[in-house]
Amino acid sequence: xxxxxxxxxxxxxxxxxxxxxxxxxxxxxxxxxxxxxxxxxxxxxxxxxxxxxxxxxxxxxxxxxxxxxxxxxxxxxxxxxxxxxxxxxxxxxxxxxxxxxxxxxxxxxxxxxxxxxxxxxxxxxxxxxxxxxxxxxxxxxxxxxxxxxxxxxxxxxxxxxxxxxxxxxxxxxxxxxxxxxxxxxxxxxxxxxxxxxxxxxxxxxxxxxxxxxxxxxxxxxxxxxxxxxxxxxxxxxxxxxxxxxxxxxxxxxxxxxxxxxxxxxxxxxxxxxxxxxxxxxxxxxxxxxxxxxxxxxxxxxxxxxxxxxxxxxxxxxxxxxxxxxxxxxxxxxxxxxxxxxxxxxxxxxxxxxxxxxxxxxxxxxxxxxxxxxxxxxxxxxxxxxxxxxxxxxxxxxxxxxxxxxxxxxxxxxxxxxxxxxxxxxxxxxxxxxxxxxxxxxxxxxxxxxxxxxxxxxxxxxxxxxxxxxxxxxxxxxxxxxxxxxxxxxxxxxxxxxxxxxxxxxxxxxxxxxxxxxxxxxxxxxxxxxxxxxxxxxxxxxxxxxxxxxxxxxxxxxxxxxxxxxxxxxxxxxxxxxxxxxxxxxxxxxxxxxxxxxxxxxxxxxxxxxxxxxxxxxxxxxxxxxxxxxxxxxxxxxxxxxxxxxxxxxxxxxxxxxxxxxxxxxxxxxxxxxxxxxxxxxxxxxxxxxxxxxxxxxxxxxxxxxxxxxxxxxxxxxxxxxxxxxxxxxxxxxxxxxxxxxxxxxxxx
Amino acid sequence: xxxxxxxxxxxxxxxxxxxxxxxxxxxxxxxxxxxxxxxxxxxxxxxxxxxxxxxxxxxxxxxxxxxxxxxxxxxxxxxxxxxxxxxxxxxxxxxxxxxxxxxxxxxxxxxxxxxxxxxxxxxxxxxxxxxxxxxxxxxxxxxxxxxxxxxxxxxxxxxxxxxxxxxxxxxxxxxxxxxxxxxxxxxxxxxxxxxxxxxxxxxxxxxxxxxxxxxxxxxxxxxxxxxxxxxxxxxxxxxxxxxxxxxxxxxxxxxxxxxxxxxxxxxxxxxxxxxxxxxxxxxxxxxxxxxxxxxxxxxxxxxxxxxxxxxxxxxxxxxxxxxxxxxxxxxxxxxxxxxxxxxxxxxxxxx
Lengths: 748, 351
Ligand SMILES: Cc1cc2nc3c(=O)[nH]c(=O)nc-3n(C[C@H](O)[C@H](O)[C@H](O)COP(=O)(O)OP(=O)(O)OC[C@H]3O[C@@H](n4cnc5c(N)ncnc54)[C@H](O)[C@@H]3O)c2cc1C
Ligand code: SF4
Known about the structure:
Oligomer: heterodimer
Largest sheet of chain B: 5 strands, antiparallel
Mean pLDDT of chain B: 95
Strand order of the largest sheet of chain B: 4-5-8-6-7
Structural class of chain A: alpha+beta
CATH superfamily of the domain at 400-448 and 600-746 in chain A: Aldehyde oxidase/xanthine dehydrogenase, molybdopterin binding domain
Number of strands of chain B: 12
Helix content of chain A: 10-25%
Strand content of chain A: 15-25%
CATH architecture of the domain at 400-448 and 600-746 in chain A: 2-Layer Sandwich
Bound molecules: flavin-adenine dinucleotide, iron/sulfur cluster
CATH architecture of the domain at 224-327 in chain B: 2-Layer Sandwich
CATH topology of the domain at 400-448 and 600-746 in chain A: Aldehyde Oxidoreductase, domain 4
């Protein structure tokens, strides 16, 4: 990764340990301040009125009634909204969507902000927003995949995914001796992190301070600054703790921009926090998909073709097409592959990335289709996957940087007890009458890296300060990144002070794509290495040092000492090196990222295999996932405890995807009718009875210097298909949409 | 937030005196406060009943009947050892409802009075006859799944969402209510009203009356050995019923001498059909018999095409609940109360 790493950095004293969360105590005792916990002097509360129709225009707002309500100070509508300096339709950063900031009276989706009310109390602003009693001129809505025409599009980066193809697809179809042609649907899911989106905005002249959860602090600063015509460095963004991001907190949303605008207009601090219901609108969602999969095998049950066509919803005014078909591209050794996408424009908010974008939805369909193909071929699903195991990247022939998927299959299957699974469905019925089914799915997630910077400061007392703006979304970055940082200087975890979550710190990049630990961790590690390099130079060039003449590359750092590796009696304390050099501190900087050459030499993915057991009541058709075993190979595991949590969380989301989560629209207004947790279901404890994670050892010398892949998203992938397949195995019913519900299994 | 008066009477007389039209009684607030936040109900005055001491007692009388104070929490009632022993399916139904936190807050009276979960009722901007008489019903032609299969009217197709009320209906509880004109008892069957052309009238309570207690008779306790509640839903816990049934049998020498069956989530009140119960009497438990009883209980059910499965599921639920009751009440409350997955040692699934 970095050529400044000349002294050997011990890696492993802290990395590999199941350290508990450094922020755990602060969180459970309520000391940790989340964005909305900030209540500066003179605060105004902002509440936006959401549209209750999905298409049309607002014909009337009772502004007078709202303004007359005691405590309401301002009502902002398209008529009086102060100017923004930036164009809300522009995309100022890599992750931007057109933001809805009261441009006009048009309504493009239910939940869209149509006015903003400010009040001296939250209650006043809330009632003010209600008193606006909007009236609409409504147009017929399009909220289901068949409600509008499906169209193709030109790929264009974020939001408009390219497909993938290799080999001769038509020849692949023709060569198949057995084939399937199936369509799967996945439902729209809405972002609902525990912490809803919130912002506290304060202006001081042309300087802006924001408390808001952000998965990409410095990008968000640039995004917000753009709208207000100020340089990004004028924006201070604090995001020390985030109650879950999952992709929704990387992108500035309209209501947040409006709150900042309101603060500038009133010259007072303004707080806006989304209600749970408001999460079903402007913060992005996983768009519904319909995926057609045509697979064929030859007489040896080798895949001749994977033909994966994805159709996904997007909004009428911006583009984010779920890249579902791309989930098929790196996994199985098919003779030919085509992964393609089309879109359908609906009266919904713009979808966006949600934990495992593309892979989660795509794998749900692919893994079920793989089982359908195995069934047609009369083969065990695991054996069928092994038969079509990709030894090198399909299409390119590139080697994998590492791929312990075979071991994942083996260890997962052994732990689960897959052997002896009857091939036919409906073969396992217990004394309690319940049908049991076993299913599996393969998981794959790529290993992207963004770019991050970090700074390390060695202090005279031998402790060190590490700084990067990188955020902790709840996944444990406060701990994991500190572990990596400590290792870079050979220090213990408690000798390291770690500062993060503030935009004034070196740019920590984006917490997304499961690349955060690798990227920000790489930067921190390089920063520590930079300090060691300088220390080594000082020592080895100084005749007074026991290390004089040793040469940089044979040094190691441990417990505050720099030592000669082959003769540890030659050593010197960090502090002594600094003192003799007349320095009180030493600062190093580091960069994390992947060189483009490295990206071209290997295919890089995390892998896994998920095994599911379900029980189904044969008459009542209620389903319960009784066991999930996931075996994952994801490079070096920095913290097994937090990794297990991440993977478990992913697998639980997989359960949610398979059995529960779905936004339901009212077909006339287009409103989401189950926009709260009483109606929008995610699994509860009783839905998760047996959950086991295995991490399979994997050394990856190529993916990055630390050998880190990601674990944030892959847990969902594979799990959905495994559950769908297990339900088939229990019942003999192949349900081709998610979530799978009682009504589906009851149908004759 | 809309401003309202909040009063905390310390006695029943104070409570009755603080009533005014447009006021609401407050129990645990788990339903009322949510609806106030949604703007669905907007009381001028909220009268908190939780500080009135004598509303929080569970009292067994000499004759074996029990009187349950209106403000007893759902959790406390379900966990009351004597109560759960005598009325196991009531306890099972309570424990299958909502979540632990909600049951700690929710009161007996509040549970009886909880409003429908119809999504259009809960959305201020939707047309709803129950909320605004004469406004129309947006649910009727929608994909709403929580929809009455029985007893619906053109004006309203909402269901009563309570689990607790289903076994109470089966066991013929009495609701003791009090108003300025004194105290009266309302048989459970008359308590919740079908919508007819006045869906805004949901219960038999008169303006200004409040529930002060619930009574279950000694005869009701006679079903304790064969009484189960079954709740079917997509999520294993913390979800309203898709379908539910309370079944209670009295058996002598393997023959059913009396049967009770009430269905939940299928109508604006727990659904009981005398003919279905009569079918059971004099027979040994048998899957076909229970199937016929379930059929009779659902006689006349109607559903739009997208919900026809629910009629089938309700029948299956009723038949299964009867089968479970016939096997016998388990010695201990199942870890998953009322769940098809709550069976112990596999001995309860099939007769
Ligand atoms: C997320 C969620 C899930 C739930 N799941 C379930 C479930 O699965 N099964 C189920 O059965 N229930 C469920 N519930 C509903 C829950 O049981 C009710 O909210 C609760 O029982 C209401 O009791 P409360 O004391 O909080 O009533 P409150 O909210 O205080 O009052 C409810 C109504 O009763 C009236 N009222 C209160 N006390 C009296 C009185 N003494 N006399 C007359 N009127 C009175 C109030 O004016 C109000 O109209 C759920 C609720 C929520 C929020
Ligand atoms: S079904 Fe009843 S409660 Fe629901 S909208 Fe119609 S009238 Fe209102």
